[in-house]
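Supplementary Methods S3. Complex input for the NAP-bound model.
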Amino acid sequence: MIKIGLLGLGTVGSGVYSILEKHKENLKSKVGTELRIEKILVKDIDKKRDIDFDKALLTNNVEDILENPEIDLIVELIGGEEPAYQYIVQALKNGKAVVTANKLLIARYGQEIMGLAAEKGVSVSFEASVAGGIPIIRPLRESFAANKIERIYGILNGTTNYILTKMTEEGQDFQLALKEAQKLGYAESDPSSDISGTDAAYKIAILSSLAYETAIDIKDVHIEGIENIEIEDIELAKELGYLIKLLAISKFTPDGIDIRVHPAFIPEYHPLASVNDVYNAIYLYGDSVGDVMLYGQGAGQMPTASAVVADIIQASKEIYYGSPDINGHIYKNDHKVKDISQVHNSFYLRLQVKDKPGVLARIAEVLGRNQVSLASVIQKHRYAPVVPIVLVTHQVKEENLQKSIAEFKNLDEVIAINNIIRVEEL
Ligand code: NAP
Ligand code: HSE
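Predicted complex, serialized as structure tokens:
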């Protein structure tokens, strides 16, 4: 029998508990022995919960789990940095295998946690930390192991994809769509992590670390969120043949890893453009396999619990048969991240300008001097004192675009810079 200590009985923890109960017999035959939840750590023992379970399992004293020598495996579903980090470290020190869905911890401390696990001869698994129910961690470690991964594009946050889909398809208000995503259990306890792009940044950092076997420091990832996306940008994107998605991008280039998270225009015909609602997708290119796209629900109780239970099954088998998977856990390379200022992209710019002769010429002069060339210019209204204009550039170096923006701010004719969004042709 494998005895499990569950840390957290919230959205994901309750889903994991339900699957382990519902599929008890099936899981026993898959693993070769029974999987039993021995204790469950929660913050508030008296809280009313939506699932049927044995209340005697609950504790709010973590020692009941971490210091119980009978518990083989802990499943961390508390989230956030502390106390989850301390609990995982203590569990590993005590020789317990760890399963977690915590992307923040793996992105920030993955190298250290995996090193400690290897030292102790136990496994750490984190399939649910990236893209909810989509298997991607194990495929990167195993199924794509024959490849040099050259690039990864991901829609990796369910909450923001849900919000952008509601805004695009129903013209829904941002705040209302966020409230719905929270009600559906997609959002983090602090949803600013979703909205700001940080959650997706943790995930692309984890994928890149595995793909290039190099520890990516989250501080090196350029991050922008969806806070400034307005219905007007979505409508203009459609007019130009694009959709707006919060895109996580990672490319292995000769002059460093180009890794970033930001809203992007993507062509409406690309497979990633049809990834809607809470669905996520990972579109990667490996030198042997070519293009591959993995698609599924990126957040929510049962899809995430499905990934956690898959890890529990694998870790339990390893414990039961005495062969923990500790190979390939440490990142061997030291590749550098490319600074965003050196990355090339096309850009969409939406400005408010005075409608008078010579304005476009002045804007074009600034762009030309900074080696930014234009692919298209659209002026939306006429005969008003101030009009919106939309510029789309050819591929330019980010620092040249930023110099132009700084100069626009000093032009009398430019009243406002409403938005700047990168255009990814993929
Ligand atoms: P959640 O609903 O907020 O549940 C957190 C659980 O942890 C609750 O049971 C809570 O206890 C317990 N807890 C919190 N702080 C604690 C403390 N200091 N000591 C003991 N117990 C504590 O969170 P969730 O949505 O299930 O997310 C859990 C993890 O899965 C996070 O790392 C998240 O990023 C990740 N994840 C979530 C999703 C998703 O769709 N929700 C998808 C993928 C990954 P009480 O019940 O007593 O409050
Ligand atoms: N809050 C996250 C999301 C949960 O919306 O994608 C899944 O990691």
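The longest strand covers residues 242-253. The CA atoms of residues 159 and 194 lie 7 Å apart.
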